[in-house]
Design a protein that fits this description.
The structure is a homodimer.
Chain A (H helix, E strand, L loop, with lengths): L7 H8 L6 H12 L3 E3 H11 L5 H13 L3 E4 L8 E4 L4 E7 L5 E3 L6 H11 L2 E12 L1 H5 L7
Helix pairs in contact in A: 2-3, 3-4
The structure holds a DNA duplex.
DNA sequence: TTAGATGCAAATAGTTTGCATTTGT
DNA sequence: ACAAATGCAAACTATTTGCATCTAA
């Protein structure tokens, strides 16, 4: 793989001592092209569209590696127990999930920097990222009367 | 079921219009007796210990309901894609997960109340809770030299 | 009384594994 | 050159579903 054409994340992979394989690159590319939340199944579809030679297992292996590297984080949205993977630009991600209709709204605001510093000191840990999930009812569902799915 | 002996969460279930069945009660009891994080498999074990008549499916159905009611939240720890369920006393939960050894440290501090209010106003949503996951390396793993599992 | 919830067991879908082979560095 | 990573396909596990029955309110 050519060092000049790869994304910063891909470069980081290599710098962490992992091979930048075509399978990993396809997974990364698919994730970066997404709007933010992809289940393994959706991801496999898109990876195969990019590179039909990639095996499913490698997608799971890449996801596990990316999670360990804090490039990505699995999160549970509604309706399914299958996780959706989100990219962590800058090491974090925040969203709101509607518990009724499943709608997800990205939230930019991050007020956890101080908390993070304080926690690192107190616990002696090294924090590489965080995920914040707010949940409840979206404007639509909050306005609805009884219990019907939108 | 007797209204005077049930936990606040159980009461809340009934008040939300759901039946307080023995399956749901067993799941709730098992969760409340836990230290905080239980996978569905661990939960099923404990539920069966409490009440052998409960079927697996009901455990999953209860977890889905409890998630919708913000009593509980699925979260990803390390090693497995299967979620661990955490109780949400006061509607929230915060923890740190070590990406290397999987250790989980509960974090009390919550600095998201203002953020929550602001968000509810801006997006028109109704927030019933939140989950915050910090991740990185625990003190132990941060101190370790290369790449071996502890 | 009766809508809602259940247990069961079968079906499904998602994930992991072992291994021979390939590939990035 | 060679350790690391892969693809494959089989094995496995977790989750969901349909349905007759039961039960909390």
């Amino acid at each position: 793989m050519n060092a000049t054409t790869v994304s910063p994340r891909a470069r980081r992979l290599r710098e962490s001592g992992y091979k930048l394989t075509s399978a990993r690159l396809a997974v990364l590319t698919a994730l970066e092209a997404s709007d933010g939340h992809l289940t393994s199944t959706e991801l496999i579809e898109r990876v195969l569209a990019l590179d039909p030679a990639v095996g499913r297992a490698s997608v799971f292996r890449a996801l596990e590696l990316f999670t360990r590297l804090s490039l990505v984080r699995p999160t549970y949205l509604s309706g399914s127990v299958t996780p959706a993977y989100v990219l962590l630009p800058g090491g974090h991600h925040h969203h709101f999930v509607c518990l009724r209709c499943g709608r997800v709204i990205e939230v930019e605001d991050c007020s956890l920097l101080d908390t993070t510093r304080e926690m690192e000191q107190r616990l002696g840990v090294h924090v590489t990222g965080h995920l914040v999930e707010f949940f409840g009812l979206c404007a639509n569902c909050a306005a609805l009367p009884a219990e019907e799915d939108s």
